[in-house]
Design goal:
Length: 340
Amino acid sequence: MANPTSRETAPRETVLVTGGAGYIGSHVVLALRDAGRAVVVVDDLSTGRRAAVPDGVPLVVGSAGDAELVAATIAAHGVGTVMHFAGSIVVPESVEKPLDYYRNNTVNSLALVGACVASGVERFIFSSTAAVYGMPDAMPIDEEAPTRPINPYGRSKLMTEWMLRDTAAAHGLRYVALRYFNVAGADPAGRSGQSSRLATHLLKIAAQAATGQRAEIQVYGDDYPTPDGTCVRDYIHVSDLAAAHVAALVHLEAGGDSQTLNCGYGRGYSVREVLDMVETVLGRPLPVRTAGRRAGDPPALVAGTERIGRTLDWTPRHADLETIVRTALAWEEKLVVAVP
Ligand SMILES: NC(=O)c1ccc[n+]([C@@H]2O[C@H](COP(=O)([O-])OP(=O)(O)OC[C@H]3O[C@@H](n4cnc5c(N)ncnc54)[C@H](O)[C@@H]3O)[C@@H](O)[C@H]2O)c1
Ligand SMILES: O=c1ccn([C@@H]2O[C@H](COP(=O)(O)OP(=O)(O)O[C@H]3O[C@H](CO)[C@@H](O)[C@H](O)[C@H]3O)[C@@H](O)[C@H]2O)c(=O)[nH]1
């Protein structure tokens, strides 16, 4: 029988979650814990919060691009899978500071993937984005659609996808790249949510307005070629997205092949429909003003979901807009009380 204290022979079952103190990563840590998995987090706390990492989960404060730190963490915790959320995520900021984005999203991912290969990590799950598609020609978007990102953020993520594809071909690593559409909502049990005050996402802005932290909500453009003129997005509840990561882990552990998968529900809501639902849930109107278009917004982004449906054992449980809005508002109310 293997000596359980030997790192050479101990089963490598722990999941290393980079960016586990952030919005999506913290929900995935909860889902992994709920599934009885051992987890270790590496996060530099640049936008994440220590409090988002549950008690009992080790937090290593440092960069996911610090190959020595990552290798030491892999060895110390018996890591067999890396889930990589750490990164910079604000699209307009990526236009102003492209090199910061290539450094944090691409260069640091290169160092991380290199550390994984050197340490014999066999499974890698990557947070990619619908932004890799740019302005798609057809809707819904399937994974074979051309990848033509229109900003440095999308390009920095696409380069990491390419790196993973080539690394998988050359080394023993298998990966799942998950292309998230619009992630929203919060843990239904109230354990985590979107905590960054600087978030630019529509529902976060609406939740801030609903709790009196923001004077108004601007609708960026109502002259798009969509049914009501406002942009359409495929909003996915963060806890369903977290469950997709656990399903991707199970897929790879069962010997499944490398995959690139959209994460969405395959149906879109307009900005107006989202704000209408917020007002319905609140039972009162919000100060909403129509403003000009925001640069770089595609009119519509809706995920093709056929591939994820047939590849992963994943059943969405929170796939209605009302649940997404209710959980986002509940979290924001909690946040305002905790950090007034
Ligand atoms: N939020 C969305 O709608 C969305 C959509 C598509 C893709 N994504 C991707 O999902 C991932 C997570 O996004 P999020 O919304 O949770 O953002 P977030 O800012 O809440 O989380 C990112 C986390 O990574 C940490 N971090 C950043 N750079 C780091 C580094 N070099 N080393 C270690 N830790 C670092 C931050 O402190 C934070 O805890 C990102 O990679 C993002 O590109 C998000
Ligand atoms: O105050 C606001 C904020 C947003 N919007 C609109 O709401 C929609 C959604 O915007 P936002 O929530 O900022 O998300 P996206 O710009 O669609 O981008 C998100 O979704 C992408 C995938 O679809 C990810 O790649 C990005 O990381 C993530 O930020 C867009 O039409 C925006 O113009 C407004 O009208 N007013």
